[in-house]
Design goal:
single chain; 191 residues; mainly alpha; Hypothetical protein af1432; globular
Amino acid sequence: MQITTQDQEVIIQQVKEFATEAHGDQRRKYSGERYMAHLLRVMNTCYLHLNTLPVLAAALLHDVLEDTPVTEADVRKFLHSVMVPEDAEHTLALVVELTDEYTKKKFPRLNRTERKHHERERLISISPEAQTIKYADIIDNSVDIVENDPDFALIFLNEYIEVLRGMDKGDQVLYREALKTVRSCLVNLYS
């Protein structure tokens, strides 16, 4: 079933509302802005490169399983209430792919370096669409951390360089933009 642009806009608005409610009063760690601003920037970046309903919806929901009490079952139920089943399952699959597996909570015995290594290996194998969303996320996070925590930014940006080295199956224009952004942010740290 083909959905119209108008239908897609209505669905995206419903997904925005769900994400806004899920993230509640969460704020970005450094800037203090509402968390939703980050999700909208990621979605808008994706829109310019891979404008499909599942990608745009997953961009808005990419942190919901990781950073809120919302469960995978909650997301599935919501998506099935606003999308055709195929798009709902596709969106959910992307959100799951974008959810960190190797967290401190799940793997308390692993140090940050070990967790990031395992996460990097996992991200290499996610779908090209999920990688594309991750590129947009990396771009937004890189700029944010350099502006607000230059001391930690060096570690963070070098982790992103390592992730991007293997995670190269998504939209190639956005991939190059992510690499350029991270490298530029590194250069800015030293200037």
